[in-house]
Design brief:
Shape of chain B: globular
CATH class of the largest domain in chain A: Alpha Beta
Number of strands of chain A: 14
Helix content of chain A: 25-40%
Order of helices and strands of chain B: HHEEHHHHHHHH
Strand order of the largest sheet of chain B: 1-2
CATH topology of the largest domain in chain A: Rossmann fold
Radius of gyration of chain B: 19 Å
Number of helices of chain B: 10
Shape of chain A: elongated
Oligomer: heterodimer
Radius of gyration of chain A: 24 Å
Number of helices of chain A: 11
Bound molecules: adenosine-5'-triphosphate, magnesium ion
Strand content of chain A: 25-35%
CATH superfamily of the largest domain in chain A: P-loop containing nucleotide triphosphate hydrolases
Distance between the termini of chain B: 30 Å
Number of strands of chain B: 2
Strand order of the largest sheet of chain A: 6-7-8-3-9-10
Helix content of chain B: over 70%
Largest sheet of chain B: 2 strands, antiparallel
Largest sheet of chain A: 6 strands, mixed
Number of domains of chain A: 2
Distance between the termini of chain A: 38 Å
Structural class of chain B: mainly alpha
Chain lengths: 315, 261
């Protein structure tokens, strides 16, 4: 896959002296879905804003489709559609005129067929002659997406597209994003829903405190960092973990009915055989056994912790 | 990738902005025209009728006719400034400016779109005022081309000023205060309702520092052929003001002042 966006050493220090981006390097491949994950204030919106021209970078270089975003901003920005995090929309305009305006603003000739396709894809066609204020919050967010798609961008930035959107609509939106990807649109989205990143993204980037901690294929990330948990249900509740099992690092659930053992699924030795032997030795009766992959959420929290730790160690 | 030329202006984008702004105007057509027309009629009744009855004529022109150019200028300035200021302040206020900033357009295109629409509306209202005036007084225009030039240049330059004001303003108070505190006094003291010859010596000299004087004087000359200052000085003053405003706007977009963090 060819690269469509190249970000090199991107820095942003706001006027009040706050460093929101501290040298971000990121290459985005054409046609992929990249999810940016990070806690509040990590710098996700700032990163997107810098690429799209809403914020003036204070350092580094960005190219979109080979065009520098500063010296060749026309060519670069023509390729980009942006859906901002906040719902900002002209209140009194009609839905369809709002979307037409976006196409014209980006210098594209009128194309009613395309406008209709976009509005239908976002289930807004029935509402096209309503004023924007007459639509619900979720619909307004879809208008923003329609506006971003009006000029047929090659790259779509979605800054928390599913915030405040109900479950059905969220699934529809995922569906739309997948369809766009099939049409060859590159999609960069930010989200707080780990599940969303896990389900949607080809790759996941983790940002914290203005630094990109890692970018990894979603499956590889899960595999590499995903711990597995073995849950052993026992017949009689225990008050404490037997010493032989405690040596394995086993913990006990609150009701005393389950022993939980965390292991690295990719390691040479998981230690599971020894553990089972020790459980038998301790004379415990098993009712059930299960393993589960730790969620990206846990992976993410660990990364952020480790990132902070590494940063502290460096200082 | 795109069919657009690398150089030259992007007229599709300009047209989009212009149309969008004009649509906003047309949505509120009634109030945008009604209020200036009523105000003007009131001015005619008070200044033209009540006071004008006691003033014979100014420089050989009936007082009612004499104040028409000043009245038109007053409305034109207010309209131009308010339209343009509000036009750009509103997207900044509600946040839709993100789209302008992310679009593949340059500062000149944004300015032409917004200022063009604001000036168009202001010109429209000015013409309506002129027409209204003909119902009250007799009017002849000696230099129609010059009159048009003054109208257009004034509409453009004060729309630019309004554009700057809209970008500068951080709240609605600032947005409305400047036209009220600065522009209205300048127009009143710029000889909208009198010739500066009628002022005492000292006042008259101070008045020459008022840029609006040159506008009104030149504009009045295009009607009656009499002026406080030579018409070509007026023209240079307006053109100079236009250039200065362009310079400020160019700097604003270069630095992102008050629009881009
Ligand atoms: N205009 C500004 N001036 C000063 N600081 C700013 C400005 N905009 C953002 N910041 C700061 O930069 C940091 C990053 O903000 P940003 O909006 O990029 O975070 P984010 O990752 O998008 O967070 P969220 O998940 O809450 O949307 C924050 O600490 C924020 O306070
Ligand atoms: Mg954000």
């Amino acid at each position: 896959m060819a690269d469509i966006i190249e970000i090199r050493g991107l820095e942003k220090t706001y006027d009040d002296g706050f460093e929101a981006l501290k040298g971000v390097d990121l290459t985005i491949r054409e046609g992929e879905i990249l999810a940016l994950l990070g806690p509040n204030g990590a710098g996700k919106t700032t990163l997107i804003s810098a690429v799209c021209g809403l914020v003036t970078p204070t350092g580094g270089q960005v190219t979109v489709g080979g065009h520098d975003i500063l010296s060749d901003y026309r060519a670069a920005r023509s390729l980009i559609g942006l859906v901002p995090q906040e719902i900002t929309i002209e209140p009194f305009e009609k839905v369809i005129d709002t979307v037409r305006f976006s196409r014209g603003l980006f210098g594209r000739p009128r194309d009613e067929v395309h406008i209709e396709r976009v509005l239908r894809a976002l289930s807004l066609w029935e509402k096209r002659n309503n004023r924007n204020t007459e639509l619900s919050g979720g619909m307004k967010r879809r208008i923003l997406i329609a506006k971003a798609l009006a000029h047929e961008p090659k790259v779509l930035f979605l800054d928390e597209p599913t915030a405040g959107v109900d479950v059905t609509l969220r699934r529809e939106m995922w569906e739309l994003v997948r369809r766009l990807r099939e049409e060859g649109v590159t999609i960069i989205l930010t989200t707080h829903y780990i599940e969303e990143a896990e389900q949607m993204a080809d790759r996941i980037g983790v940002i914290d405190k203005g630094r990109l901690l890692l970018v990894e294929e979603t499956a590889r990330l899960m595999h590499k960092l995903g711990r597995k948990e073995l849950v052993v249900e026992i017949a009689e509740p225990l008050a404490t973990v037997p010493p032989a099992l405690a040596a394995h690092g086993v913990t006990l659930s609150d009701d005393g009915c389950r022993l939980i053992y965390t292991f690295d699924a990719t390691a040479e030795r998981t230690g599971m055989t020894r553990l089972m032997a020790d459980i038998a030795e301790a004379g415990l009766h098993l009712r059930d056994l299960s393993t589960r992959q730790s969620s990206l959420e846990e992976v993410f929290l660990r990364l952020v912790d480790e990132g902070a730790g590494a940063m502290d160690a460096a200082q | 990738m795109t069919a657009r030329p690398a150089h030259g202006l992007n007229w599709t984008s300009i047209r989009a902005i212009y149309k969008f702004e004009m649509a906003r105007t047309l949505r509120t057509l009634g109030q945008s025209i009604l209020s200036p027309v009523i105000t003007t009629v009131l001015y005619f009744v008070v200044f033209g009728g009540a006071i004008g009855g006691r003033i014979e004529s100014v420089e050989g022109i009936a007082y009612g006719s004499f104040i028409v150019p000043g009245l038109v200028m007053l409305t034109l300035l207010q309209q131009a400034i308010n339209n343009a200021a509000f036009g750009i302040y509103f997207p900044k206020f509600i946040g839709t400016i993100y789209e302008l900033l992310s679009a593949p357009i340059n500062f000149l295109e944004i300015v032409i779109g917004y200022v063009g629409a604001a000036a168009t509306k202001a010109l429209g209202v000015a013409v309506i005022i002129l027409v209204t005036a003909t119902f009250f007084v007799e009017l002849t225009v000696m230099h129609p081309v010059a009159m048009l030039a003054f109208l257009v240049l004034t509409a453009l330059s004060f729309s630019l000023l309004g554009f700057i004001l809209g970008i500068w303003a951080r709240n609605f108070e600032q947005l409305t205060l400047v036209p009220l505190l600065v522009v209205t006094p300048l127009v009143f003291l710029g000889g909208a309702f009198y010739s500066i010859d009628m002022l005492p010596e000292g006042w008259a000299r101070i008045t020459y520092f008022n840029p609006v004087l040159y506008l009104i004087s030149g504009f009045r000359w295009s009607f009656f052929g009499v002026a406080d200052v030579a018409p070509w000085i007026s023209l240079i003053a307006v053109a100079g003001f236009l250039a200065a405003c362009m310079g400020v706007v160019w700097w604003i977009f270069r630095t992102g002042w008050r629009i881009k963090p």
